[in-house]
Amino acid sequence: MIEAREKITARLAWAIAMVACWAALAAGQLAGAQNAGIDAALLAKANGGDAAAQVAVGDCYATGTVAARDLRQAALWYQKAAVKGDIGGELRLAALYRDGGKGFARDMAQAAAWYRTAADQGDVDAEATMGTLCSMGQGVAQDYAEAYYWLDLAASVTGPNQATYAAHRQMMGAHITVDELEAVQERAAAWKAAHPRVSRDK
After folding, report:
1. Partners of residue 101 on adjacent β-strands
2. pLDDT class for 34, splitting at 50, 70, 90?
3. Residue 163: which residues within 8 A CB-CB, separation 6 or more?
4. Is 96 exposed, middle or buried (0-12, 13-18, 19+ CB in 10 A)?
5. Model confidence pLDDT, tens digit, residues 89-111
6. CA-to-CA distance for 173 and 164, rounded, in angstroms?
7. What angle is formed at CA 175 by the lines to CA 179 and CA 143, rounded to 5 degrees?
């Protein structure tokens, strides 16, 4: 009886191992098909953890220029870079969630979260986008003081959109109290003092 149980257990373990092998082979074939057309050296770098390469592979899927267009695959590659703090990955992932597309659901809360991550790192475009999202209540609660804060940070960097960011900041200022304005200006000044930035080319 014990011997029969051992035989059944051994057969069951063998069957489970075979199923795992088949699944691994199928996954490998699927990955090979999905990655068809992407430069092998680029893919190797991306698989090795290089954030710039991961963004580039994501771009291949997002645009469909090299591999078949697949926004879910693009998001997976962008996220690999984004979780490492790569601003390019964060911004592309945010844009995917903002716009959505075939096979990829739009999610403004996720978009705002990734824009916020890039904005916290000092990306001017992400700061301006956060200002817009906060002013409209898209993906975040509508908050004019918060919108003012992000637009003030964006407007503090010399660049082609500086005047636009400053004008939008002033519009937000018209919707908040004097006390709120004072508090948000102090907060913005503290951030700028702790994060000196260079101007952008016009």
Report:
1. 104
2. low
3. none
4. buried
5. 999 999 999 999 998 999 999 99
6. 14
7. 85
Cα 63–159–146 angle (5° rounding)?
A: 85
- Give the 3-state secondary structure of the chain: CHHHHHHHHHHHHHHHHHHHHHHHHHHHHHHHHHCCCCCHHHHHHHHCCCHHHHHHHHHHHHHCCCCCCCHHHHHHHHHHHHCCCCHHHHHHHHHHHHHCECCECCCHHHHHHHHHHHHHCCCHHHHHHHHHHHHHCCCCCCCHHHHHHHHHHHHCCCCCCHHHHHHHHHHHHCCCCHHHHHHHHHHHHHHHHHCCCCCCCC
* SS3 of 68-105: CCCHHHHHHHHHHHHCCCCHHHHHHHHHHHHHCECCEC
User: First CA to last CA across the chain, in angstroms?
Assistant: 83
Distance of CA 118 to CAs 41, 166, 190, Å?
28, 20, 18
Find the mean pLDDT for residues 146-161. 97
Distance, in Å, from the CA atom of 29 to the CA atom of 68, rounded to the nearest integer, reads 15
Read off the tokens for 92.
């592309």
- Contacting residues for 117 by C-beta, under 8 A, at least 6 apart: 82, 90
